[in-house]
Amino acid sequence: MDYMRDPMPTAVLRRTVAGLFMVGIPGLTLEPATCEFLDEYPVGGVILFKRNVRSATQLRRLVAAIHETGAGVTPLVGIDHEGGRVHRLGPPFTHFPPMRVVGAAKDVKLAEAVGRAMGRELAAVGIDLDFAPVLDVWSNPRNQVIGDRAFGTTPAAVARYALPFARGLLRGGVIPCGKHFPGHGDTVGDSHFVLPRVRSSRVALGRVELPPFVRAIAADFPALMTAHVVYPALDRLPATLSRRIAHDLLRTRLGFSGVLFSDDLEMRAVAARHPPARLAPAALRAGCDMLLVCQSLAVAAEAIEGTVRAVERGRLDGEAVATSLARIQQLRRRLARRRPKATLTWPAHSRLARRLS
Fold first, then answer.
1. Count of CB atoms situated within 10 Å of the CB of 293
2. Catalytic one among 80, 192, 248, 274?
3. What pLDDT was estimated at residue 4?
4. What is the pLDDT of residue 191?
């Protein structure tokens, strides 16, 4: 990856840096304005929301069209698909209960079966990556942001069922991404709107919040996501912007070698304090590899342009950019490109969901 050592033309650098971003798009199809954006900024991925989904057939066409936009590199297509209240897809996709219910069943094979079913359904329409499982421990009963999205209220329970769930996703054909490092389960505020704090000591963090992530790293998790949360015992900055957390703790101490995604940079926890042109380079300097900008393509363009300027002015190391791009490419290699199935019905999955409910 020596190509980042020498200065490159801004237009080339812009297209290179765009590969570090996963963006949200506005509609059910690739509208002209979206196509224009993706042509100028060939992003590394696209994340889908309810606004992008009308039917399974339409979704399959949209995902195929996104995959075809890559300038020599196929964009990853991701989605938040956890079950319970974090569910973007209507019928015929199976709506599984929240992961708290899966964990309460106390059946490792059942947890893997749920993950595999979800993976098969997402893979059937071409989706590459699922921002699941939640590795947070629901340690604070007042925390409804995580709440029943967690597999349990103890680190042992979370690790016991989240890891086989993730293994099921992989076997179903989709890359899992564990979240939210280093743990969002003891917060009260919602980082979509405020900047939460976890005031636990280092010892308490190591005993409660970190163990599921430690287990996930030992199991070779391919991707993790940061939390827009401040941990005063570790740093004054939120984890997404903290090199002490994202690099020193996660990479150096815990040995994570996969792709580190930021949570959405448009969430108020971080966006209220920093413009996108400064926020994106700061997250990359901290140790993130791929940045989510989920709502606005205009904001995504500002973030990409700010990152370009940061590289050109020496405020962001080109070698670090190259390393992140290499990690993202390695993540793509974990995908076995598959031929979509003609059918989009899964009666066995529906029976599995009813069994849990």
1. 27
2. 192
3. 52
4. 73
